[in-house]
Amino acid sequence: MTAGPEPMSEAARAALNRELSELRGERAKVAATLDDADEPGDRADQADELQRATEAERLDARIEEIEGRLREASAAGPPSNGTIGVGSTVGVRFGDGTESTLHIGELADADDPALVTVDSPLGRALLGHAAGDSVAYATPLGRTTAVVLSVGAGGGS
Questions:
Q1: CA distance 17 to 154
Q2: CA spacing 20 to 30 A to 5: which of 42, 68, 71, 91?
Q3: Do the Cβ atoms of 148 and 91 come closer than 8 Å?
Q4: Pick from 103, 95, 109: which is nearest to 153 by CA?
Q5: Angle at 74 between CA 71 and CA 77, to 5 degrees
Q6: Tens digits of residue pLDDT in 72-114
Q7: CA 55 from chain center: how many Å?
Q8: Helix (H) and strand (E) counts in the chain
């Protein structure tokens, strides 16, 4: 990622807000099952209670992560035209000469094979760049490059 807070498209913001709402609902269900009794019960009860508490902690961490990302995006403002940010649609030419249109998103989506997350090496390399820029990034086979052909607003998550 770039040095400052990353801008986020409205579509990406909406996707994170949906996930946040779902996580809060799931967290409320888990919290309702946590036992406040003073007597610990048998080992199975203790193990089940520990598992639910661990799940609550996992949910709390993800909720905090999303809230932080939404605050950061608010501070950054909307993505600027012509600069790659979360939600951008990007045309790129890879080092081997192939061209592709990609969507830059926060969350992986199995239904969108063109989605590149901001946490991936290519996603991190592209953020903040504009058409005409060349970026280098790591792949399992070593470092490679891509040239940004075009940047547009998109509906990525």
A1: 18
A2: 91
A3: yes
A4: 103
A5: 150
A6: 777 666 556 678 888 788 999 998 999 999 988 877 766 778 8
A7: 20
A8: 3, 5
Placement of tokens 């809230």 in the chain: 67
Report pTM: 0.55
Enumerate residues 6+ apart whose C-beta is below 8 A from 14.
Answer: none
Structure tokens at 119: 């946490």
**Is residue 105 within 8 Å of residue 87, measured between CB atoms?**
yes
Strand locations in the chain (E): 88-94, 99-105, 115-117, 134-139, 142-153
Q: Are 123 and 117 in contact (CB under 8 A)?
A: yes
Q: Which two tokens stand for residue 100?
A: 């592709």
Rounded CA gap, 10 and 14, in Å?
6
Integer Cα distance of 92 and 85 in angstroms: 14
Bridge-based pairing of strands 134-139 and 142-153 is: antiparallel
